[in-house]
């Protein structure tokens, strides 16, 4: 039986559109054997790895979105920016600790604290500003194989902290200091972490992105410019990586901004329309091949 790896890209609120993809896999009884996620995609991936049903996942993520919006976590500058504050923020005006606290509340209810406690193999990337290396937070290190000198593996970290590191969006959410690292959003170098599920030995991979071709006109907002710069880097990188995926599901969300809290349900409705076009591809992941199909595949490999 093929091992299925699911890779979820970063995209802020847009990443909530990944939930219907997981629901579609569940409906076809397709087991996710390993999962990776970057930035907001790491929130979804972390919850998937805890073994939640798609309904539980949807309820939790939409509640989390609502709580973050009501507490204005992404819209209020931290008091740590004030001159008299003993603690200082690096690389952003939002304190990522508040996001981590909200994530921890969710994980406490599930009963998961450390990344090693999840049920499904999980990998989450962040980037160390000091060395430029990709720091891979990995739940099942014995199953994770890589020789990449620009990857460093961390296996003992609170899950909420690993997700916070991957969500530390440059210029907005402050970098996170952890064990000598200065960590920022994994999307700086690996927005679509397909290689991480490959490192777990996935036979078939599913990549979920939210690329769009919208033009940009908001030059008066520092946050908008920062997100646009990240988007441009991500699109270029993801373009080459998705070619390796067995299934690539892209949900174009031109009309949703990365930090536009409250649009989660809207992104899910858009994803439902896209998924319909991929139903046959999804079903084919677990379809048993006929003897003739297997013979042709073997002969093709010999040519």
UniProtKB/TrEMBL annotation:
GO terms for biological process: lipid catabolic process. Residues 6-198 form the PNPLA domain. Pfam families: Patatin (PF01734). Transmembrane segments: none annotated. The keyword Protein transport does not apply. PANTHER family: NEUROPATHY TARGET ESTERASE SWS (PTHR14226:SF29), NEUROPATHY TARGET ESTERASE/SWISS CHEESE D.MELANOGASTER (PTHR14226). The active site is at residues 39, 185. A motif (DGA/G) lies at residues 185-187. It comes from the Bacteria. It comes from Erysipelothrix piscisicarius. Keywords: Hydrolase, Lipid degradation, Lipid metabolism. GO terms for molecular function: hydrolase activity. A motif (GXSXG) lies at residues 37-41. This is Patatin-like phospholipase family protein.
């Amino acid at each position: 039986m093929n091992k299925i790896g699911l890779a979820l890209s970063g995209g802020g609120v847009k990443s909530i559109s990944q939930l219907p993809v997981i629901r579609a896999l569940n409906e076809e009884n397709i087991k996710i054997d390993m999962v990776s996620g970057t930035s907001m995609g790491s929130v979804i991936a972390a919850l998937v790895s805890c073994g939640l049903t798609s309904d539980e996942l949807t309820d939790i993520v939409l509640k989390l979105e609502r709580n973050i919006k009501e507490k204005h976590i992404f819209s209020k500058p931290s008091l740590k920016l004030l001159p008299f504050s003993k603690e200082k923020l690096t690389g952003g005006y939002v304190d990522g600790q508040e996001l981590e606290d909200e994530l921890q509340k969710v994980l406490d209810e599930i009963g998961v604290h450390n990344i090693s406690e999840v049920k499904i193999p999980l990998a989450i990337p962040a980037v160390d500003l000091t060395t430029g290396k990709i720091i891979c937070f990995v739940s099942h290190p014995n199953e994770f194989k890589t020789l990449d000198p620009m990857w460093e593996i961390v296996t003992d970290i609170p899950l909420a902290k690993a997700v916070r590191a991957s969500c530390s969006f440059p210029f907005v959410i402050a970098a996170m200091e952890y064990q000598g690292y200065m960590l920022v959003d994994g999307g700086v170098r690996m927005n679509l972490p397909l290689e991480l599920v490959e490192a777990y030995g996935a036979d078939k991979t599913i990549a979920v992105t939210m690329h769009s071709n919208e033009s940009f006109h908001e030059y008066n907002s520092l946050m908008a410019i920062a997100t646009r710069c990240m988007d441009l880097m991500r699109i270029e990188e993801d373009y080459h990586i998705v070619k390796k995926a067995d299934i690539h599901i892209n949900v174009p969300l031109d009309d949703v901004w990365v930090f536009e809290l409250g649009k989660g349900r809207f992104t899910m409705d858009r994803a439902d329309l896209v998924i319909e076009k991929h139903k046959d591809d999804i079903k084919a992941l677990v379809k048993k091949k006929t003897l003739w199909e297997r013979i042709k595949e073997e002969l093709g490999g010999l040519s």
